[in-house]
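> example.struct
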């Protein structure tokens, strides 16, 4: 069999990478100086790099390898589908069995009357679709002025022009002239960072009501949709106060605003239900999906759309939108097999009944660490806030993210992939993680915290802003 193997010494691979490969979300010069880490294989929850070093991947790649690495069923299905029909499009009144079967399956799995799927190659593309879809929908209903999309600061909805505009990441907006017109942002329900002396419940209501105020300011006849992640992922695993989502739902219902739940991370078991919307009692009109849909084995994303929106769009002539790879047969077949494994192996129940509660208990104990201001989780996504002063939830005096980066580097050295968002540390391990592996994860995290604490103390960085 022809495989792309580790055919060169690591240093040579690093030199080629530095010379020819532009990395996403990376300081290129810094990386070239340091040398990239090269991952060569993976199995279950464990990665192996080009030096043979094994690392527990507590981020499931980029929040996507829900069923874990190394499932031959998916590669077998991909090979079979490539032989049968490697490609055909879904434009111009054609279809194929994988896209049909996956659409029917997703309609069964998705809550309520979310029964129609429009495919994309990624989560970003799916959110581009959503933006055009909701505007087209309102125009078809005779309300072409209803086109503003309201999102939130520190949201992540992808990296295309529309995706990054919908997102609320300032460093992304600063490059390339974003956001594009008619996308506006309100505050995020991030109690730990922004809630001050309010209770989380009070703060959740306050932030939800910013949506109502924004709708009033713009005029109900100008607003097409509100988009949000059930739990902000890339923003730092921001688990909203219990009061937040019910109030958002009430406001969307009261003002005829479509609700788009970006389920790219929360979907397919992450929060202990098939979708984050079920965990938080959200009734979206559209859900964005990607990542866990194929467990990252092949790129695929999409929008699951409710009956009303799909029917209006279906009866409004051509929808002049689509991607060459919308519903790609190999990607659809792999996604379908991934869903079969999630279901037959009861992996969502495993998150809800076993791994989620176990992680909550063990992870929660990290809150006792002197460097930790809070330790929270929902299902298998979790966060800790690093702080120099637990009682006041203070930030560090040093540049934001510097301590988080140090901690991430300690994690790497301790064979653990944990990501940092500013000075928060986050995890989202494969959903198949076993309790014994959670023990290892939390042990390595605790050791990394100890080492970070010792190092910043000796460097005089344990100072509040
Ligand atoms: C990752 C992500 C996206 C973007 O998906 P891509 O496949 O990277 O384009 C969109 N929304 C959320 C919530 C995400 O986490």
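> example.seq
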């Amino acid at each position: 069999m022809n495989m792309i193997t580790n055919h060169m010494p690591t240093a040579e691979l690093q030199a080629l990478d530095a010379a020819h490969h532009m990395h996403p979300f990376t300081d290129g010069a810094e990386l070239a100086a340091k040398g990239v880490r090269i991952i060569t294989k993976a199995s279950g929850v464990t990665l192996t790099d080009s030096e043979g070093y094994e690392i527990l991947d507590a981020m499931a790649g980029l929040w996507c390898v829900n069923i874990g690495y190394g499932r031959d069923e998916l590669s077998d299905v991909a090979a079979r589908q490539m032989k049968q029909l490697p490609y055909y499009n879904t434009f111009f009144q054609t279809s194929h069995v994988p896209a049909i079967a996956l659409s029917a399956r997703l309609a069964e799995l998705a809550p309520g009357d979310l029964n129609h799927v429009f495919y994309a190659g990624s989560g970003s593309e799916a959110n581009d679709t959503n933006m055009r879809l909701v505007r087209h929908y309102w125009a078809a209903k005779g309300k072409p002025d209803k086109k503003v999309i309201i999102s939130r600061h520190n949201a992540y909805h992808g990296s295309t022009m529309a995706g990054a505009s919908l997102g609320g990441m300032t460093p992304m907006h600063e490059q390339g002239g974003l956001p594009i017109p008619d996308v506006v942002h309100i505050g995020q329900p991030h109690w730990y960072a922004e809630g001050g002396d309010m209770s989380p419940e009070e703060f959740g209501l306050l932030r939800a009501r910013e949506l109502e105020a924004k709708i009033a300011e713009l005029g109900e006849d100008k607003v097409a949709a509100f988009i949000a992640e059930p739990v902000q992922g890339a923003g730092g695993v921001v688990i909203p106060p219990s009061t937040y989502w019910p109030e958002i739902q009430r406001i969307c219902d009261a003002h005829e605003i479509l609700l788009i739940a970006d389920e790219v991370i929360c979907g397919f078991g992450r929060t202990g239900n098939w979708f984050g919307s079920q965990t938080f009692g959200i009734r979206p009109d559209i859900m964005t999906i990607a990542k866990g849909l194929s467990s990252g084995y092949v790129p695929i994303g999409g929008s699951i759309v409710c009956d009303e929106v799909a029917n209006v769009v279906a009866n409004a002539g051509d929808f002049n939108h689509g991607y060459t790879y919308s519903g790609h047969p190999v990607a659809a077949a792999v996604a379908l097999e991934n869903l079969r494994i999630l279901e037959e192996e009861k992996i969502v129940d495993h998150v809800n009944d076993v791994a989620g509660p176990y992680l909550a208990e063990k992870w929660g104990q990290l809150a006792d660490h002197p460097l930790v201001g809070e330790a929270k989780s929902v299902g298998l996504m979790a966060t800790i806030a690093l702080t120099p002063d637990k009682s006041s939830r203070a930030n560090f005096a040093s540049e934001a993210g510097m301590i988080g980066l140090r901690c991430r580097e300690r994690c790497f050295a301790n064979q653990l992939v944990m990501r940092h968002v500013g000075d928060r540390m986050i995890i989202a391990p494969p959903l198949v993680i076993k309790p014994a592996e959670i023990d290892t994860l939390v042990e390595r995290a605790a050791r990394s915290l100890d080492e970070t604490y010792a190092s910043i103390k000796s460097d005089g960085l344990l100072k509040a802003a």
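> remarks
Residues 122-124, 156-158, 229, 233-234, 262, 264-265, 290-291, 301 surround pyridoxal-5'-phosphate (CB under 6 Å).
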